[in-house]
Amino acid sequence: MKKIFSLILVILISVSAYGDTIQGGVSERGTATSSRIVDKETGKGISGAQVSLPKEGYRTKTDKYGYFELDTSIDGTSIMSVKKDHYKPFTMTINEKNMSSPIVIGIEKSNGADISIDTNMHHLGDNSYSRLSANAGEFQGESAGPFYTQKFMLRNINIHKPAYLVIGSIIGIDTLMARTMGQNMNPNAYSSPPEVYFNGNKIAEIQINGDGQKIKLPPSLIKKNRINEITIKTGRNLMQTSYVDYDDIEFMNLIIEN
User: Fold this and answer.
1) Span 87-109, mean pLDDT?
2) Neighbouring C-alpha atoms within 13 Å toward the C-beta of 145
3) Domain span(s) for CATH 2.60.120 in the chain
4) What pTM did the predictor assign?
5) What residue spans in the chain does CATH classification 2.60.40.1120 cover?
6) Could you tell me which residue, 14 or 170, shows the higher pLDDT?
7) Alpha carbons within 13 A on the beta-carbon side of 133
8) Strand 147-153 relative to strand 35-39: parallel, antiparallel, unpaired?
9) How far apart are CA 116 and CA 256, in angstroms?
């Protein structure tokens, strides 16, 4: 896919998703020749932030004023990652158009309750997909299978405050809704949505590709000071009935926010 929408829609099972993304974001258009990473609250440049494009295998760091340049070509849509100690890991989808001029990206400081579950790129599915599939040209690795599971400890979480799972970026979803939005160019097939489980309970279905998907965790499912588990299952091609054809998707950056 050569086009990705910033519109994000998460349909939840028994809980509601909030539209605000507090994981960071493009805060303003830059005016210099270089893009910049800044503290979202103070606006000051952040030095030594690691900026990478996993698909392209490219990595660089910001200078002492927070400026950086992407000295590599971007083929279609890609995922850019920003990491810095004491800040929430941040990802966003980029392409030639929105990186044709400098941007300023504001990232947020972590608090004691934030938990970075995983900052790596993951590919789910069966490595069998049409080149017309959403973002197929951007897939960067072999599939790990139809589902992803990660266990983690929740020590400092406040069960009296809302807690959220934030998915930094996700591409490759071929649902009917994604096709309607122009994200999937395959006219003959569409898939069921990826499903998100928390401690064995389904809490969300993800219908559209995008950044900063935010899912509220049901308080009754949270296990404070114990091991918790997140599972993401990819969808299936609903037009294929003779065998199971898994939808190939990729996602990056999972955070619990409280």
Assistant:
1) 87
2) 5
3) 10-20+112-257
4) 0.74
5) 25-107
6) 170
7) 23
8) unpaired
9) 6
CA distances from 101 to 10, 95, 105, 171 (A): 30, 11, 13, 24
Q: What is the mean pLDDT of the chain?
A: 81
CB 62 within 8 A of CB 37: yes
Q: 93 pLDDT exceeds 80?
A: yes
Distance CA 51, CA 70 (A): 9
Q: Tell me the CATH number for domain 25-107.
A: 2.60.40.1120
Structure tokens at 29: 């258009």
Which listed CATH number (2.60.120, 3.10.450, 3.90.20, 2.70.170) goes with 10-20+112-257?
2.60.120
pLDDT tens-digit readout, 127-186: 655 454 544 444 555 556 899 999 999 888 888 899 999 999 998 899 999 888 888 777
Query: With contact defined as beta carbons under 8 Å apart, do 245 and 128 qualify?
Result: yes
